[in-house]
Amino acid sequence: MNTANDLPGAVTSGRLLDDLVAARLSRRAVLQGSLGLAAVSLFGTPALLKAAAAAGSRPLLGFTSIGISLADTVEVPPEYTWQVVNAWGDPIMPGAADFAHDASQSAAMQAMQSGMFHDGMHYFPMPRGSDSSTHGLIAINYEYTDDNLLSPDGMETWTAEKVQKSKNAHGLGVFEVRFDGERWHTVKDSQYGRRITADTPFVIAGPAAGHPWMQTAADPAGRTALGTFQNCANGYTPWGTYLSCEENFTPYFVNDSGSISRLQDRYGVPPTDKSWGFRWHEFDERFDAVKHPNEPNRFGWVVEFDPYDPASVPVKHTAMGRMAHEGAMLSEAPDGRVVYYMGDDDFRSRFEHIYKFVSARPYVKDGGYEANKHILDEGTLYAARFHEDGSGEWIELTHGKNGLSAENGFSSQAEVVIDARTAADVAGATYMDRPEWIAVHPTTREVYVTLTNNTSRGAGKPLHRDEPLGADAANPRAPNLMGHIVRWREAGADPTATRFEWDVFLLGGDPEHADPVKRSNSALAFAQPDGLYCDPRGVLWIQTDSSAANMRDTDLVVKADWKNIGNNQMLAADPATGEIRRFLTGPVGCEVTAVQFTPDMRTLFVNIQHPGEAPLAHPGRNDPHKPKAISTWPDGEAGGRPRSATIAIRRKDGGVVGT
Ligand code: FEO
Ligand code: CA
Ligand code: CA
Ligand code: CA
Questions:
Q1: Using a 6 Å cutoff on CB, does residue 345 contact ligand 1?
Q2: In this structure, are residues 411 and 383 in contact, taking their beta carbons and an 8 Å threshold?
Q3: pLDDT at position 47
Q4: pLDDT tens digits, one per residue of 508-524
Q5: Closest atom, ligand 1, to C-alpha of 452
Q6: Which residues have a Cβ under 8 Å from the Cβ of 556 and sit 6 or more positions away?
Q7: End-to-end CA gap in the chain
Q8: Which has the closest alpha carbon to 198: 158, 243, 241, 166?
Q9: What is the 321 CA–ligand 2 centroid distance (Å)?
Q10: Alpha-carbon distance 585 to 562, whole Å?
């Protein structure tokens, strides 16, 4: 098809038509099964950009787009600077010591320092209620650990102390930050500094609280769980609290009995402790899913806590469903109910669903946490079905509706939310290619989701299904190595609607790739999109998480598919004009994650996660005596090992980031 003839007319007719035509084009390409999508160049089309300029609109993106990188450092446009604000092991509360570069510090010290692998985060201005852009609290997820880097001899010996240190390097944190006019600093001995680890007590709230499936020997009431881990992306509430999402929690459990329940199986509790590397169960019996079959049910939730109150007890919100939650993106309904969009990105089962939660009641504006602490306890959970014709529907996951009955194994709403995946299967939700972060455009209310990749699509049976799943309209590539972004528009732009229109927004890959299944329709090369955020100006920020195993051979040589893509990166797109620019590239073996602005938009916080990740079979991968084999970021040769870190990025002239 000749898109060059189609698009300009649409653009000059205005924004809405532009979008509709773009949607039609991308949908038509999908429906035709035509994967020669390089022809559908929505981005960087000169005619589009010229039309935007002619319309007199000031371009959203003003920075110098940078090239790809294989360097072991962060690169940003020349008119910007970056600095590390807080890295793994940095002290964040009174009594904490500086990081020891040989990783020799105790488990107890780790519980007072930043955790190991920075992921989702949110900036909360200080004091509460202000809009300060120079003083704040950052609430953050420490997703997981590399236990071979966490102590001087890694996993060569395995002890209770090492399990404790691993648990204490997981979880959540709060650290206080201040800007002195030139640089950001972490307040080392802050009274607000906090760590929540894999052992911190949580209250269980919502329909599953107290249900027999939530009861354990240590908690016969089923109302108090210990800890959180694998906290990936995040969310926030309009009443000023932080949400954190428990993702790939099952590999921490083992059921080697040879007999596994439907529930454990659907969530992927592994039958052997050899496959995934976490060895907590050897020193903490609650991770033995044979002896404690309900313990896994107490994970896979969205959790909430008040970052301004270090004594606040964190809560697990079961009404929002149990899954390998990526994040929880807020969209407020006109009547004040809160709506959260959530992806289920299980890195092993791969084919999971997209969910939406709509609170039963509007929140109390200006009421703070006290007035709103039960808003997320009650509401309606939905799963998305993407029809081939570009329409879509939200299917209600409520007991008694859509097949969620006793005959299908659900005797209450508690069972629906604990086994939300099976509920979505039964209700007919679409199996997506690993849905990651979700973004909501501030004015159009369009919703964007990254589908990071799924090399199992079309290639054999998914873990929990009897037949293979091939390409469909919303997941058009099989196998899907490079990932894509889908967007939808709710009926009436109302986030509580149960109908929507959708299209494939962007395909990852190399625009020059000879193989159409790996070719991007973007003007810039990128692969395996993950982090996603639409800022208040309407810029869509896209971050990538290509695994080291996908990107490099065992000998670290970059694979041919990644030759023009390079290290993980961060792009900025203007959905209105189709312009796209590359803003940041990360160090070797890292993932780029989280997009957080100060209220004045003059500082952008980003996380660099797991620099130095090695391809799976690389001989240095599990060698604790060669911690710097892949990367020395951010400390360089002076440091002992690579460290995940929060960085702050600013324009050198102090201007708005992105311009
Ligand atoms: Fe933790 Fe789906 O990335
Ligand atoms: Ca992610
Ligand atoms: Ca990812
Ligand atoms: Ca990663």
A1: yes
A2: no
A3: 46
A4: 999 999 999 999 999 99
A5: 2
A6: 614, 615, 618, 630
A7: 34
A8: 166
A9: 19
A10: 14
